[in-house]
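Encode chain A's predicted structure.
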Amino acid sequence: MKTNRFKLLLLGILAAGATACGDSEIMTYNEELDAVRFTGAGNASYEPTSTAFSSPDKCSYFSYSFLENLTAESVEYEIPLFLIGKPSEVERTVNYTIDTEKTTAPEGSYEILSATIPAGATTGAVKFRLYNAEELGSTTYTVRLHLEASDQLLLGPEQYLTSELSWNSTIPAPTSSNIIRTYNMLIAGQSSYISTSPACISANGLKAIYAATGWDDWDDPTKHAVHNGATYGYYKYLPRYNVLIPGELYKAYALLVADYLKEYEKENGEPLLHDSGSLIGEPVTARTY
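Encoded structure for chain A:
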């Protein structure tokens, strides 16, 4: 009896499904709806993952430093683009505008070579040429881009349409949220010490941490054991935040940074100032707990 009832129920479901399919139009792919976006906010990964979208200002951040290539006259750098849709048989140009209020790079300090998604690809790039300059030893240049719609590509979700590239010849800014949080644990700026927003990061803030701690080898697995199953990756000037959680080590390192900043002001007669980021021109201050 139970078997017969199950067969009748299954037949009813199949019949309803067949009726629904017959009454509605089957959706087909429309190339005119293809769209473009940047990678996730607050993350420089070339793979768009759900964990990347954490920046409250809806901007993804990238950085480059001439620190290890000081003699280079220029370098090429790419900000990744992602296609929402299917690859095309032709290369597609991506439109953008430059946010002049957020851009500090002077004329002639960079070129944008192209912004395209190649034929047959689901990813592309905004390609820059960045020029080295003596000023980059004491300042940071930034360019902020907003994607714009074109007759070839619509726009993706609003939170993934803005990206900022910064460069200097000092310590490069971190772009991973796990390392950005470490900076915010040590330097005051964000309302929360566990913030993953890079908005307040400056080259001088990073210099203060480096001068106080001497950190420059966190990318070396022979010197630092794997912590909680996490490897350290490419960035050598700061550890992941979870390295500083046990025993509240971040509080002790914040005190080291505070001592350095006091000594700096004593020796120079003025405080160390943020040279980039949303706190530009304000004194670099250690986080207090």
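The chain has two domains: 34-168, 177-268.
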